[in-house]
Design brief:
heterotrimer, A mainly alpha (571), B mainly alpha (117), C mainly alpha (207), B: 117 residues, mainly alpha, 4 helices, C: mainly alpha
Chain lengths: 571, 117, 207
């Protein structure tokens, strides 16, 4: 007689663990594999032609990680050159190409797509109780469009690549002797992929919530993906236009920004930053969503205020559109305009603060587990708050005149991008690793490398605040001798950071095959995606979950996960 | 499986339809308004001409959107999307104009003699 | 029409497709927004040059094109209406008329471009029209090519979609209860009309 598997697995999960026959538990866990999305359908075609959002998520995972490694390699080359103030092992033009491609690859091939296309794709349908996204084929198409855009950009890179900076400012970008057009068009295509992703998530959130799941009962991660998606569909077309104009101008001399014909280069900056400022909220909002999932789970407590967290996501998305001019403070815009944008830029901090205080408040009187995802949360909260405060600093017009185009700005946005987004991305990988792969990562390695990432990051970028404040310009090949010490520190930090990330990658890959098998809900989370086997079956759930037991109901016992064999007919 | 909100609420206002007579009436209005724009541009020039042209264009757009695209009779979320798109389009145009339009009176750079570029 | 597994009913699936199309149209309008912003900025900066340059716009062709597009919106709406009443042949004919009007639009556009280029009115650094000095005025013409070119690309895409939809209608793919693809095609075509409604006065009717 077959063991009552669901009871076995449910017992393994609950906080009130009862002694369980390990062999039966193992057998129960192994059973779940046969139905999993990883095993259903084999062969390369079943992956390349899949419409399963989970498989598409994994393909994006591989692609965005490759982008991270590539962009990181560029960064390491830059930092290595900057070990010495004078001429180094790369030519100045090559150096310019390196920082351009570092920016393009990191922003458009990693930061923008990573959390939405990997974790959004994997978990939004599950968090809504849906079998897939609204438009699965569009989802697959968005992956191939991403690959095509990446290929174009890399092809441009191989042909020498642009040396304009990832910001493609006219008039240099339109007259540069380097190959600007392929890189610019590659960015355009990557933008199309981003719009497709955003459109899919918006439609899914509106139309595919399971019965009884109201807007204010969804997991918080969905809210942030939703807000991100709104930014994606509205802002990205403007970037698309801006880079196409640069490509046309460079290749065909359209001269729309050429002062000789009466054009105004600052107008390019308006178009570019109308997207690129909201873009930073595309990068941070999903990261905040990850944090909003990790914190309640490991504090075993509902969020301090659900509505505050949910609505502040929309608030950030909205206000983020009103602030782009702060990138143009010294570009030659009118003082009136600079004043308006300076004032508006202050407001976005309010919504970020609401989130930070909500997370801290969630910890209060919680029952806190100190593990790798939580270590990434603590890292996030410190680095994001610190980085955010320096954002307020540079948003102050009079101060930005001193700091603009210095390492101060670089340090500020790396604090948010690495300290915020990458940290949350790493936290997400560890948090959701058991669910996605049915394996556990090694906890001690996780803690150690999280600590090393934090240390390496600080050593890299705190000196850059000091460098920028002391006047060292960004994107410069060489620097005065007095900046030498801080540059050496920053480079050493970069090597430490790179090593820590490499260690992380290694143990994560090893754990795919040799990690301890995971139960459906190793964290005891109340969120919906955990009410399913690890890894999930193709259609996400064996039994539809009951949304009446909310995703943050920590005052209730953990819900049934139905992680083993499906109980007899329960529709 | 069932989804939220219930399908009856989703499909009530869906499958939009209008009558052929409505469509033709809207088309006639559009043709008339286009002709008005043309004649007005011959008579009124400069700033006011632009305002009139824009207002009439907005009216024509409103007719197309409301009746041909069924925004008036469709689901509220469609109207929300339309409003948001219009709002951000306006934001971009006005944001750019708030710079270009005020440079003469409030430029960031003032030279030693008190002049601006 | 197949019901995809993540949906519980065909009406919901169609409603989702409709929502997706509205999101897409909202997104596409932001693509044109950037060009409108450039137009606004440059027109504000060079009012006299824009006025002088626009004298060379072909108001006749531009106006005929306006009437063509407005009518094409009517015919595509009537085509969907016919499908909703099960009138397959009438629907195909109306779609064909819509496509014909769109092709006529493109043909007139091509004539306009040819006329301008013959005069040396070309975008950016290719501008060689001596009668109007380049500085400032060439921006009007470059924007003219960018705006109408971007619009023409969308018209072309729309015509391809309409042709495919006309073929599917003729094949009998659509029924009064299930013709979502046709609806979506119609919505897209109306956007193309909407953009032109604003382009026309901005380019051709500067006082």
């Amino acid at each position: 007689m077959t063991p009552d598997v669901s009871t076995v697995v449910a017992t393994v999960d609950t906080a009130h663990a009862v002694a369980v026959d390990p062999a039966r538990a193992e057998a129960a866990l192994a059973l779940a594999d046969d139905r999993s999305y990883l095993r259903a359908g084999s062969g390369i075609r079943s992956w390349l032609l899949t419409t399963d959002h989970k498989r598409i998520a994994l393909m994006f995972f591989v692609a965005t990680l490759a982008a991270l490694v590539l962009g990181g390699t560029f960064a390491m080359l830059l930092r290595t050159k900057l070990l010495t103030p004078g001429p180094g092992f790369v030519e100045p033009v090559t150096y310019n190409r390196l920082f351009t491609l570092h920016g393009v690859v990191m922003v458009f091939m990693f930061m923008i797509p990573a959390i939405p296309a990997v974790f959004g794709n994997f978990f939004v349908p599950m968090m809504l109780g849906a079998k897939d996204l609204a438009f699965p084929r569009l989802n697959l198409a968005s992956f191939y469009v991403y690959v095509f855009g990446a290929a174009l950009t890399l092809w441009g890179m191989i042909h020498g690549g642009a040396d304009t900076g990832w910001t493609f400012y006219a008039p240099y970008a339109t007259t540069s002797p380097t190959d600007v057009a392929p890189v610019a068009i590659g960015v355009f295509v990557l933008g199309v992929s981003s719009i497709m992703t955003g459109l899919n998530f918006i439609a899914t959130t509106h139309m595919l919530r399971r019965a009884g799941l109201r807007w204010f009962a969804m997991p918080m991660f969905v809210w942030t993906i939703y807000a991100t998606s709104i930014i994606q569909v509205i802002a990205t077309p403007v970037l698309g236009l801006a880079v196409i104009l640069v490509a046309l101008d460079h290749a065909l001399h359209m001269g729309i920004f050429d002062p000789a014909l009466g054009g105004d280069p600052v107008l390019f900056e308006h178009l570019f930053w109308f997207y690129s400022h909201p873009a930073v909220y595309i990068m941070i909002l999903p990261a905040m969503g990850v944090i909003s999932e990790i914190v309640p789970t490991f504090a075993k407590k509902h969020p301090l205020s659900y509505k505050a967290l949910a609505l502040s996501s929309l608030g950030i998305a909205f206000i983020g559109f009103l602030t782009w001019g702060h990138h143009l403070f010294v570009a030659g815009i009118s003082q009136f305009d600079a004043a308006i944008f300076g004032a508006m830029s202050m407001f976005v901090a309010i919504f970020s603060a609401i989130k930070v205080f909500s997370w801290i408040g969630t910890l209060y009187r919680g029952s806190i587990t100190f593990n790798t995802p939580m270590l990434y949360f603590f890292s996030f909260i410190y680095l994001f708050a610190f980085g955010g405060m320096t954002g307020i600093a540079v948003a102050t017009t009079s101060l930005d005149i001193h700091w603009h185009d210095t390492y101060f700005v670089i340090a500020h946005f790396h604090f948010i991008m690495i300290g915020g987004t990458l940290t949350a991305f790493l936290g997400a990988i560890h948090y959701w690793y058991p669910k996605m792969f049915g394996r556990m990562y090694p906890e001690r390695w996780g803690l150690v490398s999280a600590g090393l990432v934090f240390a390496g990051f600080n050593l890299t970028f705190v000196p850059q605040f000091l460098l920028g404040n002391a006047g060292m310009p960004r994107r410069y090949y060489s620097y005065p001798a007095r900046y030498h010490m801080l540059n050496v520190m920053s480079t050493l930090g970069a090597y430490l950071l790179a090593a820590a990330l490499l260690i992380t990658l290694i143990y994560l890959v090893i754990s795919l095959r040799w990690g301890r098998r995971a139960s459906p809900n190793p964290w005891g989370s109340r969120s919906f995606e955990w009410r399913s086997p690890s890894p999930p079956p193709v259609h996400n759930f064996l039994v539809p979950f009951d949304p009446a037991h909310g995703p943050y109901a920590y005052d209730e016992p953990p819900p049934e996960t139905h992680g083993g064999e499906a109980p007899p007919e329960a529709t | 499986m069932s989804l939220h909100p219930p399908t009856s609420l989703v499909s009530d206002r869906d499958a939009p339809h209008g009558s052929a007579r409505t469509y033709v009436a809207v088309w006639l209005a559009l043709v008339v308004l286009a002709t008005v724009t043309l004649l007005a541009s011959r008579v009124v020039g400069g700033g006011w001409g632009l305002v009139i042209a824009f207002v009439v264009a907005a009216a024509k757009a409103g007719l197309v959107v409301a009746f041909f695209m069924h925004l008036a009779s469709g689901r509220p979320v469609h109207r929300l999307i339309f409003a948001i798109a219009v709002a951000f389009l306006a934001l971009l145009v006005l944001g750019v104009l708030s710079d270009v339009g005020t440079r003469a009176i409030a430029s960031a750079y003032v030279d030693d003699l008190g002049g601006s570029p | 029409m197949t019901l995809h597994e993540q949906y519980d009913s065909l009406p919901r699936q169609h409603a989702t497709a409709r929502l997706g199309m509205w999101i897409f149209l909202g997104s596409e309008s932001l693509l044109f927004a950037g060009l409108f912003a450039l137009y606004a900025a440059y027109r504000f900066t060079y009012p006299a040059e824009f006025h002088a340059a626009s004298q060379h716009a072909n108001v006749v062709l531009g106006t005929i094109n306006t009437y063509l597009l407005l009518t094409s919106s009517l015919t595509v709406a009537l085509a969907i209406h016919a499908t909703q009443r099960g009138e397959r042949r009438r629907s195909v004919v109306l779609l064909a008329i819509t496509i014909g009007l769109g092709l006529a639009f493109l043909a007139l556009k091509a004539m306009e471009y040819a006329e301008h280029l013959a005069d040396g009115i070309a975008p950016g650094h290719y501008y060689t029209f001596d009668a109007i000095p380049a500085h400032g005025a060439v921006l009007y013409f470059t924007l003219y090519y960018l705006l109408t070119g971007m619009h023409a690309l969308h018209v072309t895409g729309g015509l391809c979609a309409l042709a495919w939809l006309a073929w599917r209608t003729w094949r009998g793919d659509f029924s009064p209860d299930a013709h979502i693809a046709l609806e979506l095609g119609g919505l897209y075509w109306h956007l193309v009309d909407l953009v032109w409604i604003f382009l026309w006065p901005l380019i051709y009717l500067i006082g």
